[in-house]
Amino acid sequence: xxxxxxxxxxxxxxxxxxxxxxxxxxxxxxxxxxxxxxxxxxxxxxxxxxxxxxxxxxxxxxxxxxxxxxxxxxxxxxxxxxxxxxxxxxxxxxxxxxxxxxxxxxxxxxxxxxxxxxx
Amino acid sequence: xxxxxxxxxxxxxxxxxxxxxxxxxxxxxxxxxxxxxxxxxxxxxxxxxxxxxxxxxxxxxxxxxxxxxxxxxxxxxxxxxxxxxxxxxxxxxxxxxxxxxxxxx
Lengths: 119, 105
Prior knowledge:
Chain A is mainly β. In chain A, 0% of the residues lie in helices and 50% in strands.
């Protein structure tokens, strides 16, 4: 079965960077786009971008352009999301999420990684 | 960038009632690229509807989606206790709406 297992919670200071990993199993990693979505405490979902694990191509939401980098390592079926110049309002649960069999519709989600930004 | 606006923000209904949730886009969205998700507290979202009107695998037929252009609707024909949750629309590979909370009246 499809599983997306994310790295553990992080606490960072303002101005620092964070890198979250997402290890995929149960399917062909290069066959499906991977999205990153975040959710601040008590708030809605915010789409950050996607990566095509096959080509490495990316598409980032305008809001995160210049601050986010999505990469992958196909040898270990793992996707990464790095967010730089962290601010307190970046405190959120970060999810990796895979396309369903319909490209663009998100069918599988990781368990989420809480990133707390605090001085 | 297309902005999705959901209404109402909160819907207070009783089990067995019909729920109608709206998602309006700032520009026309291809119907093929509109999805609805359900999220319960402490859980990741779950895909309900893709392509504006197709139910995802395992989704009960009391959930239905409709609409085109800039106006889309998610309907829950008869609310079950497990349906009380927050619902989001999304254009594929782009922003989500701000969500509609369906709460027990």
